[in-house]
Amino acid sequence: MAWLRQRCTPEDPVVRRDELLGFQFEGRTFPLIDNQLGIRKPQGMTAALSILTTYTSDGARAPYEDAVGDDGLLRYKFQGNPRHYTNVGLRAAFDQRVPLMWFFGIKQGLYLPFFPVWIVAVEVASSQVAVALDEAQRHLLIDSVGSEIERRYSQRITKQRLHQPVFRQRVIQAYESSCAMCHLRHRSLLDAAHIVPDRETRGVPAVSNGVSLCKIHHAAYDENILGVRPDYVIEVRADILEEIDGPMLKHGLQELQNLRLTLPRRRADRPDPNLLEERYERFRAVS
Question: Domain ranges in the chain?
């Protein structure tokens, strides 16, 4: 985990599969993930070391949508037979209260790490464990036993620690670490802008509801200074086009008029035209 803290910076927070498999500890290779299984329980250790969620294209749904309970806690399924040694390792991690690492796939062979995480319940009937992403979640009551305030608090933690980081990295990776409007390539200056805000029902944290934008163009999009039509063409609000100011206004905003978004290579990662149209109508209402 100390190595991950050094390796995963704000500029480059994701880690490659080959790095995890080739990790060196005390002069020997000590993989942090299993080469074939989702649970890593090294020989000679009683408890599991890490869990992994394989990358899947999310389409119009968040990839973790079915894996988070109403209590805000991640649910991680057993590896086949509950008596399999990896599942025994998960139960041991619960019994011993030891932390694990969770590697979430955001692209083929690329993972966003979450650590430390803790197993806070073993749900045998559902062949799964409940995983806390934050120290505060370790002390919350599970499922319906907890209060409504506790559940909302836990859900907010999961949104901040899971939904938002995964959404950001998936969108930025889909756009190859570039602003879709101005092509700025500094990752630390890029955001994953929601088309439909995430506070709304249709504002799912899926790549198709996002656009990689630099911070200036993200703010301009949120403030309806810029709009994007369903055909991916950018429009600048009429009053902004008429303003006279410095080079930022001219080159950073006004010259975007009628330019087209630079889109992801994969068609499934491109903005959903229906969501763009819904957002564009809001832009037109204030233009």
Answer: 2-146, 173-286
